[in-house]
C-alpha cells in the first residue's frame, strides 16, 4: 500500500486547504455553499442539466494547469483532491474578469441566477482558446458547444453569446498568471508526495487508490461491494435525486493507467477513466460520426466529468457509446486480482441492470480496431440536439466485397433491456446485394429482433419505426455515393429527425 492521508487536500481559489470529510458523498456544491460560504455558485437543478453550479477545476498535467468547467452539484468533494477549484468569487481582483465585464457590456444578465455559471463557462472557453500567447477566436459553433450546458430562462442567449465572443478576445488579467504559478507549484509538490486519499468516517469510506494494484486490494478487502466512482455524472444523481447514502466509494480518477490512451498499430485502447471530452478526438479519428455522437453527449461539463468506462459500466440500455462501440467490434478489458480478462463488449451486457462484472472486478479499458470496417455510421435520435438522452440509437458497420455484404454488425440502443445487436437483421443481409428486396427482408427481420418498451421518451411503435428508417437511411448511404455527410447539414436540428 502507498502512504495514505485522511484529509481532502485542494486549492480553493489560491488558498491550499485540508478538509476532514464527514460524509463520503458530500458534493462540491454543498461544501462551497454550506461550509465555505461561497454562495455565488448556484443550485438550479442539482442534476447536471442547468449549469448554474459551474466551477473551474484545474489539474496538473505535464507541469501545466489544465482547466475544465464542471458541474459542482454532481461532483463529490473527494474528487477534487490534488486539484484547484475556482468559483465565480475567485475571478475578479481589482478589476472584473473579462468574462464578467463582457456580460455587463452586452447586458447578458437579468434575474442573474444563471449568470455565475455562464461566467465560469465563458472563463473556461477564454482559457481554452489560448495557445501560449496566441488566441484563436472561437467561432459560433465553439461558443454554442461551450454554453450548451448552461440554461438561461430570462435573458435569451444572443447577448450571452456576444459576451463570450468579446471575453475570448481579451487578455487574461495580470493576477491570473501570478496565481497560476503559485498553484502550479503547490499541486506539483502534492503530486510528488504520491500518497493515497483514504478517509474513513462514521458514514463510510472515500478512497482514491493511485494504482490498479491498490484498487484490487481495496476491492478484495471490502466486506460489502463498494461503489466504483468515475466521473459521478450518474452517481452524483443517486445522491442528489435519490438521496442514497453510499457507504464505500472508490474513486478511479487518480489511477493514471486507467486515464491512458494507447494507440497501437492494430488497436486503439482507451482507459476506463478517460473523460468523454478527452476521448472525442481519438474517436473522431476513427469515424466522424463518433465525433458527432460525442458532441451531442450531454454538454461540455458532463463530457469533461463523465468517463468512457462509466458510460459502459452503468449498463444503461440508452447509453450513447455502447451501441456504436459494439458495431465497431470493441472488446472490454476487465481487471481483477488475477490480472485481466477480455470479452467482446456485447457480452458484457447480460440483462437490464446486470453486467458481466464480479464485485471484485472493474472495467479497465475498451479496445477498438485501429482500422474499423469502412462503412460505419451511427445516428442518435433524441428530441433535442444538446443535453438529451437517446430515444433510439442505431449503429451500423459492414464490409462490401464486389457489392456483396459481409460481416454486418448492427447494434441499437433504446430498443431492448440492453444495447443489443440486431442478429436476425444482420443474418438477412449477409452475402446479399444492396437492393430493395434485401432492404425489405432486413427491415422485416429487424422487427423480429426487438420488442421495445414504451416510456416517456418514445412509444414502442415510434422506436420500431425509427429503427427501420435508420436502416433505410444506412442503405441510402451505402447505395448513393453523394449522400450528404453529417457535417454538411447546416442546422443541428437536421440530425434529430429521420
Ligand atoms: C446532464 C446529463 C446529461 C447526460 N447525457 C448523456 C448522454 O447524452 N448520453 C449518455 O449516454 N449518457 C448521458 N448521461 C449519463 C452519464 O453522463 C454517462 O453515462 C457517463 O458516461 C457516466 O460516466 P461517469 O464516469 O460519470 O460514471 P459514474 O457516475 O462515476 O458511474 C456510473 C456507473 O458506472 C460504474 N463505473 C464507473 N466506472 C467504472 C469502472 N471503470 N469499472 C466498473 N464500474 C464503473 C459506477 O460504479 C456506476 O455504477 C448524462 C448525464 C447527465 C447528468
Ligand atoms: S445545479 Fe444545475 S447543473 Fe448543477
Ligand atoms: S438571467 Fe435569469 S435565468 Fe438567466
Automatic annotation (TrEMBL):
UniProt keyword annotations, A-Z: FAD, Flavoprotein, Iron, Metal-binding, Oxidoreductase
EC number: 1.17.1.4
Xref: PROSITE patterns: 2FE2S_FER_1 (PS00197), 2FE2S_FER_2 (PS51085), FAD_PCMH (PS51387)
Ranges of residues in domain 2Fe-2S ferredoxin-type: 6-91
Pfam annotation, one family: Fer2
FAD-binding PCMH-type domain mapped to chain residues: 199-373
SMART domains recorded: CO_deh_flav_C
Root EC class: oxidoreductase
Transmembrane segments: none
Keyword presence, tRNA processing: no
A GO MF label: iron ion binding
InterPro entries registered for this protein in UniProt: 2Fe-2S-bd, 2Fe-2S-bd_dom_sf, 2Fe-2S_ferredoxin-like_sf, 2Fe-2S_ferredoxin-type, 2Fe2S_fd_BS, Ald_Oxase/xanthine_DH-like, Beta-grasp_dom_sf, CO_DH_flav_C
Signal peptide boundaries: none
Xref: NCBIfam families: xanthine_xdhA (TIGR02963)
The protein's name: Xanthine dehydrogenase, iron-sulfur cluster and FAD-binding subunit A
Amino acid at each position: 500500500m502507498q502512504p495514505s492521508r485522511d484529509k481532502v487536500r485542494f486549492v480553493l481559489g489560491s488558498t491550499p486547504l485540508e478538509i476532514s470529510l464527514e460524509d463520503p458523498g458530500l458534493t462540491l456544491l454543498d461544501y462551497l455553499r454550506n461550509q465555505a460560504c461561497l454562495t455565488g455558485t448556484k443550485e438550479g437543478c442539482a442534476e447536471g442539466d442547468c449549469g448554474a453550479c459551474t466551477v473551474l477545476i484545474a489539474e496538473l498535467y505535464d507541469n501545466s494547469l489544465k482547466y475544465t468547467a464542471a458541474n459542482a452539484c454532481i461532483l463529490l468533494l473527494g474528487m477534487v483532491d490534488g486539484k484547484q477549484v475556482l468559483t465565480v468569487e475567485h475571478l475578479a481582483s481589482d478589476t472584473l474578469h473579462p468574462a464578467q465585464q463582457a456580460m455587463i457590456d452586452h447586458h447578458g444578465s437579468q434575474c442573474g441566477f444563471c449568470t455565475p455559471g455562464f461566467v465560469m463557462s465563458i472563463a473556461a472557453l477564454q482559457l481554452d482558446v489560448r495557445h501560449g500567447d496566441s488566441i484563436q477566436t472561437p467561432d459560433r459553433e465553439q461558443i454554442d458547444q461551450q454554453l450548451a450546458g448552461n440554461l438561461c430562462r430570462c435573458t435569451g442567449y444572443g447577448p450571452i453569446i456576444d459576451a463570450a465572443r468579446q471575453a475570448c478576445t481579451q487578455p487574461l488579467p495580470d493576477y491570473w498568471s501570478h496565481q497560476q504559478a503559485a498553484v502550479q507549484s503547490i499541486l506539483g509538490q502534492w503530486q510528488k508526495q504520491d500518497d493515497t486519499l483514504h478517509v474513513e468516517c462514521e458514514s463510510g469510506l472515500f478512497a482514491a487508490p493511485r494504482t490498479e494494484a491498490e484498487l484490487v486490494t481495496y476491492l478484495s478487502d471490502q466486506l460489502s461491494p463498494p461503489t466504483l466512482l468515475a466521473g459521478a455524472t450518474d452517481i452524483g444523481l443517486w445522491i442528489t435525486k435519490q438521496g442514497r447514502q453510499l457507504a464505500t466509494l472508490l474513486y478511479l480518477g487518480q489511477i493514471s493507467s486507467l486515464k491512458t490512451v494507447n494507440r497501437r498499430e492494430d488497436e486503439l485502447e482507451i482507459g476506463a477513466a478517460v473523460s468523454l471530452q478527452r476521448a472525442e478526438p481519438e474517436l473522431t479519428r476513427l469515424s466522424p460520426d463518433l465525433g458527432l455522437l460525442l458532441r451531442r453527449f450531454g454538454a461540455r461539463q458532463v463530457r469533461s466529468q463523465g468517463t468512457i468506462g462509466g458510460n459502459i459500466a452503468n449498463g444503461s440500455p440508452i447509453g450513447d457509446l455502447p451501441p456504436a462501440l459494439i458495431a465497431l467490434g470493441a472488446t472490454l478489458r476487465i481487471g481483477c486480482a488475477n490480472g485481466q480478462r477480455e470479452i467482446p463488449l456485447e457480452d458484457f451486457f447480460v440483462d437490464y441492470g446486470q453486467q458481466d462484472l464480479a464485485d471484485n472486478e472493474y472495467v479497465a479499458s475498451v479496445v477498438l480496431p485501429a482500422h474499423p470496417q469502412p462503412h460505419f455510421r451511427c445516428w442518435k435520435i433524441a428530441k433535442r440536439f444538446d443535453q438529451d438522452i437517446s430515444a433510439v440509437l442505431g449503429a451500423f458497420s459492414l464490409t462490401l466485397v464486389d457489392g456483396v455484404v459481409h460481416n454486418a454488425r448492427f447494434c441499437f440502443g433504446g430498443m431492448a433491456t440492453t444495447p443489443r445487436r440486431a442478429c436476425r437483421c444482420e443474418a438477412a443481409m449477409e452475402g446479399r446485394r444492396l437492393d430493395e428486396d434485401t432492404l425489405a427482408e432486413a427491415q422485416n427481420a429487424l422487427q423480429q429482433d426487438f420488442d421495445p418498451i414504451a416510456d416517456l421518451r418514445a412509444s414502442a411503435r415510434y422506436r420500431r419505426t425509427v429503427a427501420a428508417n435508420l436502416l433505410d437511411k444506412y442503405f441510402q448511404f451505402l447505395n448513393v455515393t453523394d449522400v450528404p455527410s453529417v457535417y454538411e447539414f447546416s442546422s443541428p436540428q437536421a440530425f434529430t429527425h429521420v
